[in-house]
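Project standup — Tuesday

K.O.: blocked on the structure for the chain from last sprint. Re-posting the sequence here as requested.
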Amino acid sequence: MLIKEDDIPALARGCAVLGTGGGGDVRTGSLAARRAIQAHGGVPLITLADLPEDALILPLSGIGAPTVSHEMIHSEDEPKRIAEEAERIFGRAPAAVMSSEIGGGNGVAPVAWAAQLGLPLLDADGMGRAFPEVQMVSMYVAGLPADLVIMSDVAGNVVTIRPVDGLWSERLARAVCVAAGSSALMADYVLTAAQARGAVIEGTVTRAIAVGRSTEQTADPLGALQDELGARRLITGKLTDVERRTSGGFVRGSAVIEGTGADRGRTLTLELQNENLVALEDGRVRAIVPDLITVVDTETAIAVQTESLRYGQRVTVLAWACDPLWRTVKGLETAGPAAFGYDLDYVPVEELA
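H.V.: unblocked you, prediction finished:
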């Protein structure tokens, strides 16, 4: 498959949904992707089977607070500087780009980065959604060593980090990110195709495009999206309170939705850290990380990022199951409720709903 300019709107809509409120603004990533395709041509979408065992894969993502990243736009030089540094370290050039997280702008922008580097894009990512911390990737859960992080910022700085483990990769990369103004470009878990087998979540780019296309040319985009995702509808209502703050390279806060129509009299509260992490109703958990929780516009089914939540918006909250990898013991240890400081047990959304 060749990702062309007319594929970008569907990809962006799907990535916004899979981003669960985070992963960066899809609008800036979409503009960058379309411009790069116009300049360099379509981007081949490949699978792991298309790569030799020793082919080097460059996982790229923006790191930082979404409230900053949609104003501080990545330059075209950042992915080039990272690719050059990876080639210097490994002695050979990367053979493909991969999105570290398919959610939000971090799922769309890799199309631009791949086009700018003249490389194909791997139909895979490290999350199947979006998560806020560096170690919260499938490669970490699979046990690959987190011994290299390469970062670049709009000022032209390049930082190479050699952390001792995944938790240190988050601490050190976050400190660099904050120093760069809470937004930077990052490659972590640079790996070979052989290492990637069983350690990445495959098919997620085509999945995002399918999710985005599900709402096209239908009289019921919300119903079509819910069916495509296999999602539960937690509430339909109006945003009545949003509390949001940017600190330590994250957006943290909460949002309150009061039910309307058939949901009148009900109230749902979302807890946020870049992404929607917990949905609570009357103190009872309705859905919880690592399962996916997304806020969408009730009429259009377009996802609303956490930084775009506003009082009075008419929204519906959907929740659905995460990739099975995140329900393993190591997956829950890495990105379950306790990893975000919640003293709550994980219960699959299909049981809670």
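K.O.: great, moving the ticket to review. The two ends are 37 Å apart (CA to CA). The CA atoms of residues 141 and 330 lie 6 Å apart.
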